[in-house]
């Protein structure tokens, strides 16, 4: 049992329920208990190349909306994507997604720290509303990833129709999700966010198809 | 029947027996004009003649009789409703149905199967208990049963529903039945015709003449007809008719779809309904599974059918009956349901003198065919609605006295 | 209709949308009669024809207006309601 290693009470990843069957190795990242590895590192490396599914719900996130939201973010040094439904990097460590015209999702990658800074600013400003985020988040990697999407999503997510700065909000496996393409360490990957309550469902669907296509679950330690 | 067969065998020519006379053009005037030659309109014509001696009646049907929602429903007859008003009304209908084959001298294949409304959640169980108590109070046979009794009645049913929505119990309604729906229209048509009413197919109403708040005539594609009394019994076309007389109603049209499978060996004796899985199913005497689902989710005045509907319905059917995965759906169709906000019909008089409404039949009209015909005939004959349909009057909306039947709609919510 | 154009997200399958009913303007509560108010609460323009309707794109949470013929099920145009948004066509305000 890994529980004895956990010193503080940590939030459990919204995906964890769907992973309990797997003999995952657990650890606490950003205050959230999350599967860091599933099998030995060579097998996971091979899965990652074909079709890897990784739970990254533990990344820090901050949501904000309102007519003054973009000015407010800009005044705090956040790089704002110009057009709705696009995203950009802020300091190479933080994703900034513009959801519609006046709503934003900011997500720190493992080494980012923008979200905690934004969250510590509790002063109320007119026209700026915090959006509590409780996402399940995934990284999908490998050369079979488009075959997976062709089973789950009615949109064409190939490079020629999904630009590298586009954000799409659509349905994946019948539930609302946000999707974009990103490059992590020279590898092209897809990112998927959905409401946390659907986390374990989506994990089960994604990994089931991933296994069929020769891939499988990959721990967050690989990123 | 055998005698009639013998007569045919010995006859030199074989004239097809007609159910009702075909008339060339309508007369100049009628005492009553009924718009809509479905079950409801034809039943009203029949009871106007039989109960009230009013026979100078024309039934105008823009297509062919029984070709609308009468021939598009899933033929279920039941009275396990939620409000005492509803239960009384539908129970009166079931009682007429039980003797209707004899009365109309036509085999309607009325088959009492027992009707299970499956509950998959505690809140659904609560509604079932509520309905059972109201039904019992009014004298209608309904009771709440557990999974064991459901399994006994239908051993093929997967009580866990693939683990997605395990069945906790059901409302069992013993009088629940199915009937041959087009037969109901044809039987009433023949009965009305024999008593003197005239039926006109391919006859479309183009306008209704109203002067000083009173109906005085109907314009049709076969000429003008003078009349002081008009009954609209057109289900999904109701808003088009009420628009002709500038009458506002709460009715909105949504398509309702259904489908049947190829015939299979009989295995399903009962009628099953699942609100959570949006399915109702029975097996016809030919062996086909007759299946329906919830309303299409947006307003459209069409009878088109969609792939989304069959996909959704069949996936839920497989939750209940996994062994049906190789059975083919052979036919699907749609009807236009005239929905009301409280899931109860709109029946009776209107602010326009001589204009009567039999509408708002949404997804629940077939089972009410006999009693709505009877009560609308009474309403027209006396120019006053009987107590049985008082709660269904159009003015209940401006009085904020709705008759909430949503909890008893099979899967409409 | 199998596809619908969301003004913010483009052409999407109908399964991504929820129908929100007809766009309606309420009578003034302070001056209308009880009968007018009851009619507004309950009655609908049920006859088929060109209608202005609310639709909702579920994945993005976008409410918008679609002009649709309820007989043919053809959508003539879709746009965002109101002026709080920078992509609203200018001719949109007449229903307010």
Automatic annotation (TrEMBL), chain A:
GCVT N-terminal domain segment(s): 21-220
SUPFAM superfamilies membership: Folate-binding domain
Stretch forming the signal peptide: none
Coiled coil residues, start to end: none
Gene3D superfamilies registered for this protein in UniProt: Probable tRNA modification gtpase trme, domain 1
Protein name, UniProt field: Sarcosine oxidase, gamma subunit family
A Pfam family assignment: GCV_T
InterPro entries, sorted: GCVT_N, TrmE/GcvT-like
From TrEMBL, chain B:
Official protein name in the record: Sarcosine oxidase subunit beta
GO molecular function, one term: sarcosine oxidase activity
GO cellular component: cytoplasm
The species this protein was found in: mine drainage metagenome
This protein's encoding gene: soxB_2
Keywords from the named record: Oxidoreductase
Residues covered by the Rhodanese domain: 32-76
Listed EC numbers: 1.5.3.1
PANTHER family noted in UniProt: FAD-DEPENDENT OXIDOREDUCTASE DOMAIN-CONTAINING PROTEIN 1 (PTHR13847:SF287), SARCOSINE DEHYDROGENASE-RELATED (PTHR13847)
């Amino acid at each position: 049992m890994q529980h004895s290693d956990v010193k503080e009470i940590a939030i459990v990843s919204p995906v964890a329920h769907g992973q309990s069957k797997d003999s995952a190795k657990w650890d606490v990242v950003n205050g959230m208990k999350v599967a860091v590895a599933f099998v030995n590192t060579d097998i996971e490396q091979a899965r990652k190349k074909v079709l890897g599914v990784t739970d990254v719900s533990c990344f820090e996130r901050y949501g904000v909306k309102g007519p003054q939201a973009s000015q407010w973010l800009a005044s705090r040094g956040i790089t704002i994507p110009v057009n709705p439904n696009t995203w950009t990097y802020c300091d190479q460590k933080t994703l900034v997604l513009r959801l519609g015209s006046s709503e934003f999702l900011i997500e720190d990658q493992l080494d980012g720290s923008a979200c905690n800074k934004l969250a510590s600013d509790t002063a109320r400003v007119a026209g700026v509303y915090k959006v509590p985020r409780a996402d399940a988040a995934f990284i999908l990697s490998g050369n079979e990833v488009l075959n997976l999407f062709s089973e789950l999503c009615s949109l064409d997510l190939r490079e020629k129709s999904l630009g590298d700065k586009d954000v799409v909000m659509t349905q994946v496996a019948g539930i609302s999700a946000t999707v974009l393409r990103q490059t992590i360490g020279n590898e092209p990957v897809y990112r998927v966010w959905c409401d946390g309550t659907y986390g374990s469902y989506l994990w089960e669907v994604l990994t089931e198809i991933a296994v069929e296509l020769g891939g499988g679950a990959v721990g967050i330690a690989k990123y | 029947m055998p005698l009639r067969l013998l007569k045919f065998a010995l006859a030199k020519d074989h004239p097809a027996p007609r159910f009702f006379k075909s008339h060339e053009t309508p007369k100049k005037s009628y005492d009553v004009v009924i718009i809509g030659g479905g079950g409801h309109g034809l039943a009203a014509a029949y009871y106007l003649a039989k109960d009230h001696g009013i026979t100078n009646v024309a039934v105008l049907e823009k297509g062919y009789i029984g070709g609308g929602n009468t021939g598009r429903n899933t033929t279920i007859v039941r009275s396990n409703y939620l409000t005492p008003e509803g239960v009384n009304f539908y129970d009166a209908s079931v009682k007429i149905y039980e003797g209707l084959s004899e009365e109309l001298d036509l085999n309607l294949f009325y088959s009492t199967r027992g009707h299970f409304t499956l509950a998959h959640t505690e809140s659904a169980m609560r509604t079932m208990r509520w309905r059972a108590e109201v039904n019992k109070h009014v004298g209608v046979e309904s009771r709440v049963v557990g999974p064991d009794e459901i399994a006994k009645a239908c051993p093929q049913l997967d009580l866990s529903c693939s683990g997605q929505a395990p069945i906790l119990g059901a409302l069992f309604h013993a009088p629940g039945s199915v009937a041959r729906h087009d037969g109901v229209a044809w039987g009433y048509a023949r009965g009305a015709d024999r008593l003197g009413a005239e039926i006109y197919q391919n006859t479309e109403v183009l306008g209704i003449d109203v002067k000083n708040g009173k109906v005085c005539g109907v314009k049709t594609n076969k000429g003008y007809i003078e009349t002081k009394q008009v009954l609209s019994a057109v289900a999904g076309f109701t808003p088009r008719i009420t628009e002709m007389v500038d009458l506002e109603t709460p009715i909105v049209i949504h398509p309702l779809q259904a489908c049947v499978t190829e015939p299979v060996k009989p295995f399903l004796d009962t009628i099953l309904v699942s609100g959570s899985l949006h399915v109702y199913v029975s097996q016809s005497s030919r062996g086909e599974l007759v299946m329906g689902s919830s309303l299409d989710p947006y307003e459209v005045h069409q009878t088109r059918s969609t792939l989304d509907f069959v996909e959704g319905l069949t996936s839920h059917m497989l939750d209940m009956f996994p062994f049906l995965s190789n059975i083919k759906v052979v036919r699907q169709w749609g009807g236009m349901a005239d929905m009301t906000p409280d899931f109860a019909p709109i029946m009776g008089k209107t602010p326009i003198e001589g204009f009567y409404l039999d509408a708002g039949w949404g997804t629940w009209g077939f089972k009410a065919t006999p009693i709505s015909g009877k009560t609308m005939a009474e309403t027209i004959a006396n120019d006053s609605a009987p107590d049985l349909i008082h709660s269904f009057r159009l003015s209940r909306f401006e009085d904020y006295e709705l008759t909430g039947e949503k909890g008893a709609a099979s899967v409409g919510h | 209709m199998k596809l619908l154009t969301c003004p913010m997200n483009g052409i999407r399958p109908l399964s991504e949308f929820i129908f929100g009913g007809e766009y309606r303007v309420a009578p003034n509560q302070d001056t209308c009669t009880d009968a007018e108010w009851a009619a507004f609460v309950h009655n609908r323009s049920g006859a088929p024809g060109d209608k202005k309707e609310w639709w909702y794109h579920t994945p993005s949470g976008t409410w918008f207006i679609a002009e649709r013929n309820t007989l043919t099920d053809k959508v003539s145009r879709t746009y965002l309601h109101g002026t709080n948004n920078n992509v609203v066509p200018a001719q949109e305000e007449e229903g307010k």
